[in-house]
Amino acid sequence: MTAAAQTFPRPSSLIPDSLVPDSLDVDRIRKDFPILTQPVRGGRPLVYLDNAATTQKPRQVIDRIVRYYTEENANVHRGVHYLSETATDSYEKARTTVKRFINARDEKEIVFTRGTTEGINLVAQSWGRKNVGAGDEIVITAIEHHSNIVPWQMLCEEKGSRLLIAPVNDSGEVILEEFEKLLTPRTKIVSFGHASNALGTINPIRKMIALAHAAGAITLIDGAQGVPHLHVDVRDLDCDFYAFSAHKVYGPTGTGVLYGKESILDAMPPWQGGGDMILSVSFEKTTYNALPYKFEAGTPNIEGVIGMAAALDYVSAIGIDTIAAHEQDLLHYATKRLLEIDGLRIIGTAVEKASVISFVLEGVHPHDIGTILDEQGIAIRTGHHCAQPLMLRFNVPATGRASFAMYNTRDEADALVAGLHNVIEVFR
Amino acid sequence: MSDLRELYQQVILDHNKNPRNFHELPNATKSVDGYNPLCGDHYKIYVEVEGDTIKDIGFTGNGCAISKASASVMSSSLKGKTTADAHQLFDVFHKLVTGEPGSLSTAELGRLAAFSGVSEFPARVKCATLAWHTLNSALEGDKEMVSTE
C-alpha cells in the first residue's frame, strides 16, 4: 500500500460548516483591494485563490508606496538633507512597526531582507558557517519549502555536516516522537516552517522549539506562511530566528524580515559586505556596523520596507485573530464542498491547518486543472509548490492548491467547485 | 471555454488517456530524461536508431495531458522516419505551438495539427515541446538530461 493510499480524507458530512464565529466585513475589505475588481479572461470576475504564492495589495499599501516616491524618496542613512532624513525616518519607523507586530524586544533584532529565502540563507551562511562543523547535525522536517532545505544542504556539503529530516504522518503532521528522536547533542540548529505552504499544516512550533532547546540546539522558524495567518509573538515562542516575507502578508515583493535574538545576531559575522554595513573602511582594516545594519549591506528596498509596514498596520487594524477566524471559516467550508466532488482527494488533512487546500483530481493532471480554471477566471497554483520531497512522500507528482486570504468569500469557494466540475466535463 | 476545446482536442484527450509507445525500450541505443522544473513534468525518452533511421521510440514518466499526448503523438509520428525527418518535424511543430506561420497545411501536419490550440496558451508551450526537446537531445547524443527552463 502506498503512502497516498493510506490518506483518508474526512468525509464532508463530518465537517461542520464553521468552527469559529466569522465577524470580518469582507465586502468592506474587498473595496480596499483594487485588483480584485478587475475582470480577467474575457470579462470574468477574478477569483484569486493563489494567496500562499503571494497576496494582493490593499490601496493603503499602494498609496503609501506612491507617497514615498512622491514626497520622501532619497537614500537612507547617508545624506544630511531633508529628503534623506525623511526617508530614513520612515524606514526606521517601519522597523519599529515590525518589532511591535512580532513582539520583538528591540529594533536591533529586526534585519530587513529580500524575503524569507534570504533570511534563511543569511542564517545558514553566517551563523551556520561559524557554528556548524563536520559531524554536526541540522534538523528540518519533511514538509519544508525548498528554501528551508537547500540552504542547509549547501552548508552541510561545505562543512561535512548532516541534514536530518523529521518525518510526517499521512495527514501531513510532523511526528513529534520521531522529531524528538533526531535531537541529540550533535544537533546545532533546527529549522522548520510555522505553517506548510504545500499542505497548510500548522506545526506545534512552541513545543518543537522547546524540544530543540532542551537538546541544546538553536531554532529558526520559516514564517512565510505563519505571519499572514497566525498571531506571532517571537518572545513568547522563544525562537532564536524567525524569517518572513512581506508579499505574503499584503505587502510588496522583494522585502522581508529576519528576526534574531540580539545576543545571537551580535555574535554572528556579517554575511554580505558593502555600504551601510560598516563603521569605517580602510585597506588595512574594516570595522563593521552595529546591529541590525551589520546585516544590511547596500541600499535596501526602502519602498518595500515602508510598504511592508503599511501592510502590517493594515493587518493590525483589522486584527489577525479576526482574519484567522474568517480564513478558518473559508477553509472548513471549501474543504467540505471540495470533498463532495467525485474523485477529488485532499492532500494534507492535519487537524491544525492554515487556509491552504492541496488536492488531486483522479485522471486529470493538476497543470490541466490550472489552465481550465484560469479560463474561468479562477487562479490557483498547480505543481510541486517548491516542495518536491513532500510530493514524493505523498506519492503524487504535483497537486492543485487553493489558498484563501482575508478578502476571499464562500462564493469564491463555490466558484472553485463549479470550475472543477467544468474540468471534469472537459476530461470526461 | 471555446479556446479550451481548441486546446484539449479529442486527439490530445485520447493520447493522454491511452498513450502510445508508453514503455521502456529494451534495445534503446539512447535514453534521455526531460524535466520541466516549473511544474514537475518528467519523461524519459528511449530511441533505437539504426544508421539514420529511428527504428523505435518509447517513453515513460508523467505530466499533464498536453505533455503526455505530445510525447505519444511524437513517438507514433516518428517511428520509421529518419533523424533528418525528426528534426524537420520538430521545427514545424515548434512553429505550430508558438503560433509562427508554418509551411505545412493541416492535412500535411496530420495528428500534429491537434496541438494548434497550444499557441493560444503561452504557458503551455513548454508542456507541448518537452518530449521533442528531449528527443532532440537523444538524437544528438550529447546529454543525459534536458530541462525546459
Describe the structure in brief:
The complex is a heterodimer of chains A (428) and B (149). With 428 residues, chain A is α/β, with parallel strands linked by helices.
Structural features, described:
The complex is a heterodimer of chains A (428) and B (149). Chain A is built from 14 helices and 15 strands. Chain A is an alpha/beta fold and 428 residues long. In chain A, the strands form 4 sheets. A 7-stranded mixed sheet of chain A has the order 2-8-7-6-5-3-4, sandwiched between helices. In chain A, strands 11-12-15-14 form a 4-stranded antiparallel sheet, with helices on one face. Chain A starts with 25 loop residues before the first helix and ends with a helix. Mean pLDDT of chain A is 94; it is low at 1-8. By secondary structure, chain B is α+β, with helices and mostly antiparallel strands. Chain B has one domain (2-147): Alpha-Beta Complex (Sufe protein. Chain: A), CATH 3.90.1010.10. Chain B has 6 helices and 4 strands. Chain B has helices at residues 2-7, 10-17, 65-78, 83-98, 106-109, 125-140, and strands at 30-36, 41-50, 53-62, 145-147. The chains are: A alpha/beta (428), B alpha+beta (149). Chains A and B meet through helix 12 and helix 14 of A and helix 1 and helix 3 of B.
Show the helix and strand layout:
The complex is a heterodimer of chains A (428) and B (149).
Chain A: H1 26-31, E1 47-48, H2 59-72, H3 82-101, E2 110-113, H4 116-131, E3 137-141, H5 150-159, E4 162-166, H6 176-182, E5 187-193, H7 205-214, E6 218-222, H8 234-237, E7 241-245, E8 256-260, H9 262-267, E9 278-281, E10 286-288, H10 302-318, H11 320-338, E11 344-347, E12 356-361, H12 366-375, E13 378-379, E14 381-383, H13 388-393, E15 399-403, H14 410-427
Parallel strand pairs in A: 1-13, 3-4, 3-5, 5-6, 6-7
Antiparallel strand pairs in A: 2-8, 7-8, 9-10, 11-12, 12-15, 14-15
Chain B: H1 2-7, H2 10-17, E1 30-36, E2 41-50, E3 53-62, H3 65-78, H4 83-98, H5 106-109, H6 125-140, E4 145-147
Parallel strand pairs in B: 1-4
Antiparallel strand pairs in B: 1-2, 2-3
Helix pairs in contact in B: 2-3, 3-6, 4-6
